[in-house]
Design brief:
By secondary structure, the protein is an alpha+beta fold. 56% of the residues lie in helices and 19% in strands. Strand 2 and strand 3 form a beta hairpin.
Length: 177
């Protein structure tokens, strides 16, 4: 049923299929992430572009469906596109994050440094396994997570830090750069 053609033309078509599939799947991964963040305009734009690319790519596959090389490159482009899309989204850092810091001894110092750097933070006293701890929480832009974590680590390298995506944010104080 399948053939294995390695002519110069079939290799170029397979590479084109791979490249276009990486682009298409990367856009679709971004679209899915933006859907979770309720960004309707960009979800529509990316959905439109992705579906047009998909139809064109699939036309190449159907034109030579018996060539297993095209099928392999199509699948490899899909798999690669997922990873590339995640990498792009991570670099764009769209949206907001809720960040929590647990520090047994240096909560006040962490608060001071974060506030000096214009982060809005709330301290919640809590009891951990070994006694009282400071739980520091803040809602920040995802693009600021690295800076926030670095400030905390500079004060308390042993602090426990967790980060979660936040879908909707209303009101509050936001750091101005």
């Amino acid at each position: 049923m399948f053939t294995f053609q390695l002519t110069q033309q079939s290799i170029l078509i397979a590479l084109l299929i791979f490249t276009v599939r990486v682009i298409s799947t990367s856009l679709d991964t971004l679209r899915l992430i933006l859907t979770l963040r309720s960004n309707k305009f960009w979800v529509w734009v990316l959905g439109f572009i992705n579906s047009a690319i998909w139809v064109l790519t699939f036309a190449f596959i159907l034109a030579d469906i018996d060539n297993i090389v095209n099928v392999i490159f199509y699948a490899a482009g899909f798999a690669t596109g997922n990873v590339v899309g995640m990498w792009i989204e991570d670099r764009l850092a769209i949206g907001f994050a809720e960040i929590r810091v647990i520090s047994p001894h240096l909560g006040a110092a962490i608060l001071e440094v974060l506030r000096e750097n214009k982060f809005a933070v709330t301290e919640i006293p809590a009891r951990g396994k070994d006694g009282m701890v400071s739980v520091i929480t803040s809602s920040i832009r995802r693009s600021q997570v690295h800076d926030f974590e670095k400030l905390v680590r500079d004060v308390d390298a042993g602090a426990f830090i967790t980060t979660e995506d936040v879908v909707a944010v209303q009101r509050g104080f936001w750091r101005v750069k």
